Amino acid sequence: MSEQLKFIVEQLNREPFKKNFNLITFDSLEPIQLLQTLNDVLAEIDSKQAIDIREEMPDQTAKRMFTLLGLLKYKPSGGLTDASSFRQGLVTGSKPVIHPILHWLLQRVPELKKRAYLARFLVKLDVPGEFLTDDVISDTYHQYEELVEGFKTYHKECEQLRNSGFSTAEIRRDIAAMEEEKDQLIKRVERLRKRVESVSNHQRMLELARQLRVEKEREESLAHQKQEQKNQLFQAEQRLQRCQIQLKDLRQAAADAKPESLVKRLEEEIKFNSYMVSDKLPKELERMRRKVRYLQKVASEPAMGHAELAELEEKIKQLSQANQEMEKKMTRTDPMDDNLTLYRQQASIIARKKEAKAEEVQESREELAAVSREVSSKSSQARGQGGVEIIRTDEFKRYVSKMRGKNITYKKKRQEIAELKSEFGILQRTEEILRQRHTAEQQQLQSLEAQKGISGFSETQEELERVSAIKSELDELKGRTLDDMSEMVKKLNSAIADKKTALSPLIKELRPLRQQCQELAQEYEEKKAQYDTCAAGLESNRSKLEQEVRVLREETAQEENRYHYINSMKEIIDIQMQRAADEMKVYVSSDPQTQKKSIREQYMKNIAEQESLGKKLREQQKQVKESHGPNMRQVRMWKDLEQLLECKKQCYLRAQSQASIGQVIQDSGEDRLVL
């Protein structure tokens, strides 16, 4: 406890409180001062709490503090059992209640500030259900909920940005670095442009280079489109294979299944759904209604004391004993009832098993639906990220056989690559020899051009020939690419036509099954609509009941707070009445020693002492008033005498100094000449 008090005093003496407490002064605070200190700490957390509690009713102060502490999620150390004592201690300013609250608040002020700030926007208003039936109020409430959700989103984004580590200084540095790189690139382009402008016929060369770059970009885009079309073709082949496998499975299922089995399966499903709608769900609804009625009854009844609880427990024991005695009598009297009891037990066991199986079936259906949704989401996510869907066993076997064939082809190609590499080495050596010869001939040609005065002609001619060759190759490549694409489109169209002809009989077989599926789906939608309407009605009733229970709980809490406040005020008044009764006993008592101890006698004694003291002071005042005039005259006379003596002294000194100039003064037998 001493450590707790030290921490509280230390925190209260710091910013922003600056209370200048020590352990003695803090421990000797009155309850109203202690409550004001707690209110100041709460005002630092939430600015709306900055109120002087002397100007506020005690019940309003207690309610305001209860509300804020509930929003801040403060839990008393005693738990729910000491809730009433906690409320009473907070109302009366009890130290064992206030000190732990201050210690808890001062430990986590920044966190609680944030929580109080968020509570202003995230704690929703409770609007009664009957008001929400109005369209205007309902629309306004929906807009309010949307604004609350928007605030959550923006607050999360703000926190993420604060914790992400991005800073404006780093972004500015990056922008400055990019600006520098941009300037460097502009300067480099200018230098290259000046260098090119010195070359003859540079405009044509730049145009050819631009066309070459455009053609290369077009070539890359065509290659990318070709690769995408290959991927799409591969995915279409995979989908076709899967559709074929599914069609095969459906044929096998259709061959094995008969209309009777399908009808039987549908009848079982209808029975299960009818059991859920007519038997299980009404029982659960009735159980929930009974529970709500019981809770309403409990909330409407006044709070019970220990005596009433003990009486109820005694009644419960008596009723349970009477019930056991009745069951024993029934088992002893009639043997037919024993058989009926056995049948009833068996029927109840079967009903419980039926309910358990129905719950298992419902859970299995929900689990199957969840797994199917998860599988579909994972497959769509894999397709979105460019992945491949999961294949089955037959597909995997075909994939393995295909990979074996590819492995054989790979070995052959690897052998061909080895042969090509050896041939490449020979060709590379030949190229080096030819390049050496070419350089020698080029040097000889340059010397001849220099002699004739046409230096650079051969290089320009070679450059033009090279550009024209590249252009012709690109044109040829474009022609081949377009031919390949047209052939591929023809092949795809022919393959699609073949697949359509192969699938046409299967489609004819699927038409009646599809019609039957549509009929069943329509019936399922009708049943589902009925179920949804029933569920919606039950949900609306449940929400209304929950709203009513919430309102009743709030009223109960308010009444309980009011009860504790009145109880505490009653205790204070009882104590005052007891003190008044004790004073009357002492006052009426015949013992003089006892009467001297009474508060009245003490007050009378103090009054007598104060009266005597006042009488003495009045006499002194009278004497001072009587002697004030003569004393003031005497003071003035002394001041005048002092001024007169000072004036005589000045006159004497002035006369002495004037008389002593140029005179002979005899002093004790000696003559002195004063100049």
Automatic annotation (TrEMBL):
Annotated ranges, domain IFT81 calponin homology: 3-126
Primary location: cytoplasm
Entry coiled-coil feature ranges: 168-253, 309-374, 403-451, 510-562
Compartment(s) of residence: Cytoplasm, Cytoskeleton, Cilium basal body
The organism's place on the tree of life at top rank: Eukaryota
GO molecular function: tubulin binding
GO cellular component: ciliary basal body; intraciliary transport particle B
Protein name, as recorded: Intraflagellar transport protein 81 homolog
Organism: Astyanax mexicanus
